[in-house]
UniProtKB/TrEMBL annotation:
Belongs to the FAH family. The keyword Protein transport does not apply. GO terms for biological process: oxaloacetate metabolic process. Residues 81-290 form the Fumarylacetoacetase-like C-terminal domain. InterPro entries: AB_hydrolase_1, AB_hydrolase_fold, Fumarylacetoacetase-like_C, Fumarylacetoacetase_C_sf. The lineage of its organism: Eukaryota, Fungi, Dikarya, Ascomycota, Pezizomycotina. GO terms for molecular function: acetylpyruvate hydrolase activity; metal ion binding; oxaloacetate tautomerase activity. PANTHER family: ACYLPYRUVASE, ACYLPYRUVASE FAHD1, MITOCHONDRIAL. Keywords: Metal-binding. It comes from Aspergillus pseudotamarii. This is Fumarylacetoacetate hydrolase.
Amino acid sequence: MSTSPSINYCAYVDPNSGEHRIGHLDLTTEQIHPLVFISGTRISNLYQVIEAGEGNIQLGRGDPIPLSQVKLLPPISGRDILAVGKNYVEHAKEFNSSGFDSSDKNDQPTFPVIFTKRATSIIAHGEQVLLHPGFTETPDYEGEIGVIIGKAGHKISESEAMDYVWGYTIINDFTARERQRDHKQFYIGKSPDTFCPIGPVAVPKERLPPNLQLQTFVNGEKRQDATLDQLIFSIPTLVSCLSRGQTLQPGDTLATGTPYGVGFGFRPMKFLQAGDEVKVSVTGLGTLTNYMAATDAINPTVERVKSQSAIPVTNQKARGHEGLVKVGTKELFSQVQGQIEGPPIIFIHGLGGSSTYFSPLVAQLSSTHALYLSDFEGHGLSPTNALSEITIASLASDIRDIYHNARPDRKPATVIAHSMGCLVAMKLALKSPELVSSLILFGPPPSPLPEAGSAGSFARAELVRSKGMVAVADAVVNAGLSSKTKESNPLAVAATRMSLLGQDPEGYAKACMALAKSAKERLDTASLTCPTLILTGDHDAISPPHLCFSYGKSIQKAEVQVLEAVGHWHLFEDVKGVSDAVHTFLERLQ
């Protein structure tokens, strides 16, 4: 089902997920109907709408959302606005006689007067416009029709120009008149923060009549009233002019000029004051409404710009931050399951795993224990920032902080860990022994990691960054599972592959580097005093029995069990053997 003939496009913040969305705004009922691609994928911005084409867009299945419950966004943003000055005859005359025109001495320009408005000046319908005291004492309005480009073009002829127009929106080209005059060009006076309201919707040109009418009202008084056919330079002329030496891009937006009736045209001149309501209405586009802010209003643009970052965050799988907890500057996936009054258990997964790895144990222990599960930074459902370095120590700190947040009483817990997670668990027990009552370690790697293992982990990180998880999944499965598992336990093979292929390559690579860097530190295992169970498989090449027995001698209260015909993914390969060993150990602790 494609969009209906009445569909328009508005941008808004989804009240549940916090994500930017595109929807249809019913201008009568003031409800937003979410729009999606025909695949069901949500649409984030108007650039996607333009590129996909309306045949690939449909109404979503979600219920309409009252406009009052969402934050409306400008329908198009992110780029400077291309703009035209003095493009209505009567306005050109009033501008020329106002004393604010330093661009030309003629009433009517011979060529289009082109300038830009800074992208940071763009705001949405309903937002406040700053007065900028000290910068300007002459804030003025300019209701305009905005033209949105639909496809890339260079040297576009006037006869073909409308083929490059996608549609229209409303723009209020607020202006600091004395800055426009004193700088003898328009950019400075046109680009103050909040001086470019756009919206509330954008509409394809096919859904609108060819001759749109524009009206502007200030505090209910009609100030401007004109139609597109009154432009000095038509839309085809402007598109052709702009594309003669530069390529126009889909989504480029052109403010076509304002008609007669701006504030400086009155005698005495009527500049805007705090609390003034400015409305711009255009045929089929609704009404763009904004209010002039108080003189001491805080500029919201600063925080909006500060909140934007060019630093990539990878592994952002948790929709609406669902399940994520704040740990310092990080967000990490964390769950609490089981009986909160029961003995606490902290689970720490390994490289290529996630908290889901422990599902068989969770199912058995949830009726008796309080279970605390989390995903490494960059693994499972936990995102990771490119500036965040992952180390064994940082992962241990994350586990500590997550447990502190979830368990204010900080009751000592049994820590169950797998593979690289064992290094994290031992680091946690050494740094925060008051939190760890006992350790259960599945296949702990050597500490320090041998140089060959370190070099291999660094190399694997680079391979994954270049070619993705598929480049290492088979090798890890082949090396990590026992021959018996690979021959007779296809579910364990599938679970291991799924765990690996489900990882974000960058998150996995960063964890590989954390493991590689563990070659620089020898954990003081002799200082571990809590009861410890070390579990390995007789085919575990990463944590072979002789290594585990060495750990068993070093750790004061340790015991070692070796599972027959098991490799390194112990719980996938032998659920019963691992579960029995864990239950027996936990029962002895009671």
